[in-house]
């Protein structure tokens, strides 16, 4: 048995009588993990194995402190014998899904990640060296210049993506590493080399990997094995002793059969085949699983696990410290650069929008071409400006899918402690600015000059700046929506709905004094950015304008049109409206930051509240100790 005093940031992880349940209206409370006890120690690779749906990922998520708030958990999870919060920089977790930036090449993704994660004190050349070495260890040297690809187009293979995901998390050689199915999608040779690299990093590190179907060679790399079936422990102990355990329980591994194949076949209850027990007798899988669970709970192995857990728990070991990483400024700069590159390569982010906006701007310009100064031009000018402030800005939601993809990468990296939400918000804002200038100024100029709105540089600048700020506002609004709403389609619908309500209360479709006071006027009219966008654009256009009234044979002053036709408050300048819009951008971005940060704080709190005592959780399930009765 190894030394159990953690040194140099080493991590001993224990879990005792761990229960996880989900509730549904149909089935009530259903236990996914049922009283699991185990431990992971530095220098030992622990593999969690079991048939699909047995609870491997749930166990990994639970001990890594990442369980979703829809589940309830109970039992003790201790790190170095203490209750400590994991995640956010103290451990690394390679998830089952590969959440990567599709537009980057493998090399770029790893280099950026190295710059984001490794401390400022490390020279850039050393960071590159570590990145190159890790890519080589993961067998990615031939794919370095290939784009990762994904939803935007084909890139590297699924197996290579898996290796990139692992590569990004082992760059800093974390003391505690969780890997959910690191070999899925890999062929047997790649699986072996990847697992060998992971196993070779075990020195002083605690590594826990869930794995589906390891080959004999891969299986031989595991130090400990946790075998689950239907959320219960079938075996926990040295991987090398599992064959003997199965044999002693009456299910010996046939000669020349891969032991892991034998284990999984024996405990897979999804396809209820009878299992041979000795030469004559056959048993149902359910019976076999119960025999194995009882055999394990009666065994010395189980007692050894319990005493090892108790011994580790007695040590009030080191408190986990966050890894030292790049400074906030470096992270913000690197993220800005990465986000800028991503935006430039992702056609859907801005380029498609620019093309569509130009077409719409030409359309607007031809419909309202040389609008003139006749009485009817009042309505034409108003409609044209309303279209710009509402529909052109509304279409900024077109970049939502690209943003959601970027957000997924951010959420993975943030959870693994690569950087914080502040750097992401700054980077996203800065990197988008040049593109937003393009998509607002070019189509804006086409529509403005073809229509023949008020001449002069100042007038055009005000028009384009209002359009520009509204686009940022719509993007900011969609960021807030994305941080609250769980999926892309729901986000798109919610964002569109919010904007439709705001635009209705903006003061064009119903004049400000005619708006119903409850909700529409107070507060929506004042909260909606459309009010300030309409007012800014209308003031910019009508102030100082003289319209020929053909019937009255006279001139109408623009200020009167603003006051009496559009019911616009002309006591303050159009620049104040623009300033309010700019203030709203800051407010919206801060709100996004707040929601993301609240998510970080609220989720663990919700988990803690939702945790119940084991008996309350599911009295219908059989606790492990009852198998030994
Ligand atoms: N949040 C949840 N709500 C409802 N059911 C859940 C939830 N999380 C997990 N489950 C269920 O718990 C069981 C275990 O899921 P888990 O993902 O841990 O299995 P797994 O062993 O990792 O499977 P696989 O190898 O196929 O990935 C499954 O039946 C799954 O449907």
Question: How would you summarize this macromolecular structure in one to three sentences?
Answer:
InterPro entries: AAA+_ATPase, ABC2_TM, ABC_transporter-like_ATP-bd, ABC_transporter-like_CS, ABCG_dom, P-loop_NTPase, Plant_ABCG. The protein has 629 residues and is of the alpha/beta class. Helices cover 52% and strands 13% of the residues.
How many strands in all?
15
| Low-pLDDT windows of residues | 613-629
Count the DSSP helices.
23
Structural class: alpha/beta
Oligomer class: single chain
GO cellular component, one term: membrane
Family: Belongs to the ABC transporter superfamily. ABCG family. Eye pigment precursor importer (TC 3.A.1.204) subfamily.
Pfam families: ABC2_membrane, ABC2_membrane_7, ABC_tran
Domain ABC transporter: 13-255
Describe the protein.
Its main location: membrane. The chain crosses the membrane at residues 350-371, 383-404, 424-450, 462-482, 488-511, 575-596. This is ABC transporter domain-containing protein. Belongs to the ABC transporter superfamily. ABCG family. Eye pigment precursor importer (TC 3.A.1.204) subfamily. Strands 5-6-7-3-8-9 form a six-stranded mixed sheet, sandwiched between helices. A three-stranded antiparallel sheet has the order 2-1-4, with helices on both faces. Strands 10-11 form a two-stranded antiparallel sheet. It is of the alpha/beta class and 629 residues long. Mean pLDDT is 89; it is low at 613-629. Helix 11 crosses helix 15 (421-451), helix 13 (377-394) runs parallel beside helix 16 and helix 14 (400-415) packs across helix 16 (457-484). The chain is 52% helix and 13% strand. It binds adenosine-5'-triphosphate. Adenosine-5'-triphosphate is lined by residues 22, 32, 50, 52-58, 68, 70-71, 212. Adenosine-5'-triphosphate (ATP) is lined by residues 22, 32, 50, 52-58, 68, 70-71, 212.
């Amino acid at each position: 048995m190894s030394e159990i005093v953690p040194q140099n940031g080493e991590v001993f992880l224990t879990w005792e009588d761990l229960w996880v349940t989900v509730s549904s209206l149909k089935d009530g409370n259903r236990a996914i993990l049922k009283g699991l006890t185990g431990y992971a120690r530095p220098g030992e690779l622990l593999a969690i194995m079991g048939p699909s749906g047995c609870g491997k990922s749930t166990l990994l998520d639970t001990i890594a402190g990442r369980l979703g708030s829809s589940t309830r958990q109970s039992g003790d999870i201790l790190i170095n014998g203490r209750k400590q919060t994991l995640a956010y920089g103290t451990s690394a977790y390679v998830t089952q899904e590969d959440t990567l930036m599709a537009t980057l090449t493998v090399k770029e993704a790893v280099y950026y990640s190295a710059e984001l994660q490794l401390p400022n004190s490390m020279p850039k050349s050393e960071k590159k060296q570590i990145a190159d070495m890790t890519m080589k260890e993961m067998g990615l040297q031939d794919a370095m210049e290939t784009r990762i690809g994904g939803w935007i187009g084909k890139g590297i293979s699924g197996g290579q993506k898996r290796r990139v995901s692992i590569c990004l998390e082992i760059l800093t050689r974390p003391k505690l590493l969780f890997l959910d199915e690191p070999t899925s999608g890999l062929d047997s040779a790649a699986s072996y080399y990847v697992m060998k690299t992971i196993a070779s990093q075990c020195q002083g590190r605690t590594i826990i990997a869930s794995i589906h179907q390891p080959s004999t060679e891969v299986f031989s790399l595991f130090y400990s094995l946790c075998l689950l079936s239907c959320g219960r422990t079938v075996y926990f102990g040295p991987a090398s002793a599992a064959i003997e355990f199965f044999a002693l329980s009456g299910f010996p591994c046939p000669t020349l059969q891969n032991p892991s194949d034998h284990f999984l076949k024996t405990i897979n209850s999804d396809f209820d085949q009878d299992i041979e027990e000795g030469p004559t007798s056959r048993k149902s899988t359910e019976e076999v699983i119960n025999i194995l669970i009882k055999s394990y709970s009666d065994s010395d192995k189980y007692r050894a696990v319990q005493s090892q857990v108790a011994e580790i728990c007695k040590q009030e070991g080191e408190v986990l410290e966050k890894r030292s990483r790049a400074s906030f400024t470096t992270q913000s700069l690197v993220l800005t650069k990465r986000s800028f590159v991503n935006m430039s390569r992702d056609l859907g982010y801005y380029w498609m929008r620019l093309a569509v906006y130009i077409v719409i701007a030409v359309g607007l310009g031809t419909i309202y071409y040389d609008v003139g100064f006749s009485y009817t031009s009042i309505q034409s000018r108003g409609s044209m400006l309303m279209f710009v402030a509402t529909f052109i800005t509304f279409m900024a939601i077109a970049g939502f899918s690209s943003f959601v993809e970027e957000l997924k990468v951010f959420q993975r990296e943030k959870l693994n402690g690569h950087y914080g939400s502040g750097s992401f918000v700054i980077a996203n804002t800065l990197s988008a600015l040049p593109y937003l200038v393009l998509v607002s100024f070019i189509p804006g100029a086409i529509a403005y000059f073809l229509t023949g709105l008020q001449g002069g540089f100042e007038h055009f600048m005000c028009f384009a700046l209002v359009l520009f700020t509204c686009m940022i506002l719509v993007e900011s609004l969609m960021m807030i929506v994305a941080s609250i709403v769980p999926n892309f389609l729901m986000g798109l619908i919610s964002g569109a709905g919010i904007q439709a309500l705001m635009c209705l209360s903006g003061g064009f479709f119903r004049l400000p004094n005619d708006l119903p006071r409850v909700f529409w006027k107070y507060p929506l009219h004042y909260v909606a950015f459309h009010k300030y966008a309409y007012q800014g654009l209308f003031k910019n256009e009508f102030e100082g304008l003289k319209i020929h009234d053909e019937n009255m044979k006279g001139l109408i002053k623009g200020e009167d049109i603003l006051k009496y036709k559009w019911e616009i408050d002309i006591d303050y300048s159009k620049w104040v409206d623009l300033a309010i819009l700019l203030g709203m951008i800051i407010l919206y971005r801060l709100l996004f930051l707040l929601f993301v940060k609240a998510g970080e704080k609220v989720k663990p709190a919700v988990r803690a509240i939702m945790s119940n005592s084991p008996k309350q959780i599911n009295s219908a399930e059989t606790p492990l100790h009852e198998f030994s009765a």
